[in-house]
Amino acid sequence: MLKFNGTKYLSTSNTFMKKIWIISVFWLWACGGGGESSPTEPQEPVNQDALVSAFFGLDNALPSILCTQPGSQLDGMPVNFKYPLDAATLSGSDFEVVDSLGNIHIPICARLAPANENGENRTVLLLGEFGTAVTNPPVEVRVVGDLLTIDTISGESACSEIVNLNGISTTNVIPLANGPSLFFAQRIDGNLNECSSGTQTIQVAWNGGITPYISDDTEFDLFQYYIGYSESAGDLVPHVPISIADINDNDNFHQLCFSTSDDIVKISIMANTVEDPNHDPNLYSEIDVISCTN
After folding, report:
1. Residue 182 pairs with which residues in a beta bridge?
2. Are 294 and 159 in contact (CB under 8 A)?
3. pLDDT tens per residue across all 294 residues of the chain
4. How far, rounded to the nearest angstrom, does the alpha carbon of residue 111 sit from its chain's CA centroid?
């Protein structure tokens, strides 16, 4: 039984580059997520909160060639999971997106890349037509195919196991006009750790793509806006990371490098420090660092 405590689209000023988080890598792959593997029976029922959120990131702003099809511009929607996914079982047909009028949309294709390194694989990018931002936005995302998770990778503090996510859904669909926020954090070490200094590393993930919002900032500068918290006698003690890793790879994950040996249990980030491809800045955001027991 899994038990939990608690609960980036890179760009430049060039508008096209603000969509690179979605476009990068996919030019090299055919849509559909690869061959389907034979699904296995879940070891136990999967909690609905395994599907954390969906983010209506772009509305008719992506070329359909990304799904190897000519045609009109596509919507882009990152869908975020608490558990890492098995790429071999991923397909656009695993999902349904429901708009506010009740219409059901099947994504044209789905991708884990570029957030597909070990310790990532928790954000799926759906591409297709999912509604319109103002008059008929998407309001629900469902998993309707055999989409499997993978076992915990050595070095992760968030546990997983092989389960079938078929049947879970979320109505936590962030509108296009909203800014991005954190949806996941865990402690990582061993081969997963990309920090070259510090005593502990916390990996965080955003529910939509981000780029620095403050003029002249680069992605490397973002560490100064994060704060980690340890706990002492019931009080939270703040710690600013000494650096940031896992950057400049066009995905939505960061690694925060801390010099304290006190366990970081929560991460926050200041408001108006990052923005999404729609130029919406983030609000203040915080997330608990996940740990678990099997």
Report:
1. 206
2. yes
3. 443 344 333 333 444 444 444 444 333 333 334 334 444 454 455 677 899 999 999 999 988 888 988 778 999 999 999 999 999 999 999 999 999 999 999 999 999 988 999 999 999 999 999 999 999 999 999 999 999 999 999 999 999 989 999 999 999 999 999 999 999 999 999 999 999 999 999 999 999 888 899 999 999 999 999 999 999 999 999 999 999 999 998 889 999 999 999 999 999 999 999 998 888 999 999 999 999 865
4. 12
Look at residues 55, 18, 58, 78 and name the one whose alpha carbon lies nearest to residue 175: 55
- Give residue 264's domain range: 3-293
Rounded to 5 degrees, φ, ψ at 196 are -95, -5
**How distant, in Å, are the alpha carbons of 6, 21, 38 from that of 10?**
28, 5, 35
> Strand, coil or helix: what is 255?
strand
Q: Which residues is 97 bridged to in the sheet?
A: 105, 141
One-letter amino acid of 66: L
Q: What is the number of structural domains in the chain?
A: 1
Nearest 5°: the CA angle 4, 38, 75 is 70
How far apart, in Å, are the Cα atoms of 178 and each of 23, 158, 168? Answer: 21, 28, 24
Residue 185: beta bridge partners? Answer: 204
> Residue 210 and residue 254: Cα distance in Å, rounded?
11
The number of residues making up the chain comes to: 294
Closest CA to 165 of 24, 52, 247, 72: 52
Residue type, 286: E
Question: Which of these, 178, 138, 137, lies nearest to 275 by C-alpha position?
Answer: 178
Predicted TM-score (pTM) of the model is 0.84
- CB-CB contact of 35 with 88 (8 Å): yes
